[in-house]
Amino acid sequence: MNAMRKYAVIVAGGSGLRMGADKPKQFLLLQGKPILWHTLNTFLTAFTDISIKLVLPLNFMDEGKELMESFNETNRIELIAGGATRFNSVKNGLKSIDAPGIVFVHDGVRCLVSKDLILRCYEQAIEKGSAIPAIAATDSIRIETEQQQQYVVNRAHVKIIQTPQTFQTAILLPAFSKEFQPEFTDEATVVEATGQKVFLIDGDYQNIKITRPIDLIIAEQILQDKKI
Fold it and tell me: Model-level pTM greater than 0.90?
């Protein structure tokens, strides 16, 4: 089982406009290190034999190289230019995978991802073909229609999807040979479009996505609490 090849496509191609910062959010500092450093560090320590495809905006390759060299792991991290959409960025990251194995696709700004979640996703993907982290919704949920009408849905049936979305290469790589469709909001929807069923796995409420300034404050506190 441990002989399976392991790949992580870390997607960090966004501009982070909602953060209101002068640089993409993945390079903002969290406890003195770039947000992206924390993400990479967890994957690198989860498996000693994992190969990371780090997908970045084309004009931030120098920052990516500096980050990569800070780990002294240049043989395990490959820098790849992102595309116009998340779908295209992931597709670019998958192009250099040419051997069977397990692929994690992860948001670079989900920097609190745990080693435990990564390992659980790996084990389930081997067994079932995929592992899509999901947590239960805790807020009341309303759907607003195009006609501006509203209706309530039972939140017990609502799942909030996270990453790393994890798949066997035999399932994920063929799915990304398709052209982009607007309904492709994540890797699970791309795979489902091929007729494959995907399988959820319990996510982690601390596995937040750094999108707005408040998220950075929350992440700082979580990391601080872990040190206590």
Answer: yes
Triad 141, 145, 146: Cα angle to 5°: 150
C-alpha to C-alpha distance for 40 and 206, rounded to whole angstroms: 17
Per-residue pLDDT of 32-71, as tens digits, reads: 999 999 999 999 999 999 999 999 998 999 999 999 989 9
Q: Which CATH number fits the domain 5-133+160-227, given the four candidates 3.40.50.2300, 3.40.50.1820, 3.40.1390.30, 3.90.550.10?
A: 3.90.550.10
- Angle, CA of 44, 47 and 50, to the nearest 5°: 75
Report, as ranges of residue numbers, the positions in the chain whose pLDDT lies below 70: 1-3, 14-22, 228
Q: Which two structure tokens, joined as six digits, stand for 109?
A: 């700004």
| Cβ–Cβ under 8 Å, residues 164 and 106 | yes
Domain map (residue ranges) of the chain:
5-133+160-227
For residue 26, give the 3-state DSSP assignment: helix
Per-residue DSSP letter, 195: T
In contact, 103 and 172? CB cutoff 8 Å? yes
What residues contact 132, with CB distance under 8 A and at least 6 apart? 161, 165, 166, 188, 198, 199, 200, 201
Closest C-alpha among 21, 83, 76, 24 to residue 48: 76
